[in-house]
Design goal:
flat, alpha/beta, 19 strands, about 325 residues
Length: about 325
């Protein structure tokens, strides 16, 4: 029995001795530990320096080493890091995130996360969470993150945004959902605290503002979705503090789009005309200060005029050359 205890103690000491210890790189912020490479699998023995509340695990662009690998971020790894309040862990090929309840700020972008585990029964303290550029399809888990103020979910594979996930987030101010696949959005579940909503380049087919109230909303981006109509009057009533709205959708008729822009302009709401074709394409023209697509007959007339003008220029040039040639021959007689 004594021999077994001795062997066990020896093996424990050996495990501690061979544990991987990570050191922080020099950094001007005393409370931040920056590490360029980490490799961790559940069960690995790892250790980190004490005295840091922020961890930044991020590869340097100039680093000539293999990329970090943390397939699973679990409670053991969090304990080994001495339970910091802020973690930035990007490009580590992470697939599973077991979110610590104590974490206040988390950036786990540019990974392969498909699962976020919220198994801790405690209240989650996180206020800032970046899960952009991952592989999430389901975001039901966010309903428990009631202290969230900033949530980044762009460039995932979500095809559904449940109202039950958004409604409990009464403190949410900034929501980023660009480059996803959901066709509907729970407008009536938007918290009244919302300041900034970005759904750029998605698949949304309807925008319903008549029964919502977002009194603090200052920025809205619905550009390049699949919307066929937008009621700007309802939008401005729902968001009286709106200062910037990007609403261009190719499914909306050009004249209707010009009316939308005119109404925004009348209420001092700024907007962005991406790809202003008025300067380069005869199929576009500027009406009321807005670049819009010409009607088909207008485009046809423009093309006809262009062809006629080109023909006239060619005939004039040929006639001029003929006259010069006649004069030249006459002078040489």
């Amino acid at each position: 029995m004594l021999r077994l205890q001795t062997l066990f103690s020896f093996l424990s000491l050996l495990a501690i001795a061979i544990a991987t210890h990570y050191e922080c790189l020099p950094y001007p912020v005393a409370s931040l530990c920056r590490i360029e490479f980490i490799s961790y699998h559940p069960g690995d023995q790892v250790s980190f320096p004490t005295g840091y509340q922020q961890y930044q695990i991020k590869s340097s662009p100039s680093a000539k080493m293999i990329s970090s690998k943390v397939k699973t971020f679990d409670s053991e790894l969090y304990e080994a890091m001495h339970r910091p309040s802020s973690i930035e862990m990007t490009n580590t090929e992470m697939q599973t995130l077991i979110l610590p309840a104590e974490l206040s700020m988390g950036d786990f972008s540019n990974n392969h996360i498909t699962l976020v585990n919220l198994s801790n029964p405690e209240n989650y303290q996180i206020t800032y969470l970046d899960l952009s550029s991952n592989s999430l399809t389901n975001i039901d888990f966010i309903s428990r993150l009631v202290n969230l103020e900033v949530l980044l979910l762009e460039s995932n594979t979500m095809d559904h945004i449940p109202s039950s996930a958004l409604r409990p987030l009464t403190k949410l101010k900034y929501l980023y959902l660009e480059y996803n696949y959901f066709t509907s959005f729970p407008w009536n579940a938007l918290p009244s605290s919302m300041i900034h909503l970005d759904c750029y380049f998605g698949s949304i087919t309807t925008a319903e503002f008549s029964r919502i109230s977002v009194p603090s909303l200052g920025y809205l981006n619905l550009q390049y979705n699949s919307l066929s109509t937008i009621n700007v009057t309802d939008l401005l009533q729902a968001a009286p503090k709106l200062k910037e709205a990007h609403l261009y959708n190719s499914h909306i008729d050009s004249l209707e789009m010009s009316r939308i822009f005119a109404e925004l302009k009348a209420h001092n709401v700024s907007f962005d005309e991406k790809y202003d074709m008025c300067n380069t394409d005869d199929n576009y023209e500027r009406k009321f200060g807005i670049c819009v697509h010409r009607r088909p007959e207008e485009s046809t007339v423009s093309i006809g005029k262009a062809v006629l003008l080109s023909s006239l220029v060619i005939v004039t040039a040929v006639l001029f050359l003929y006259i010069v040639l006649v004069v030249f021959r006459h002078m040489n007689r």
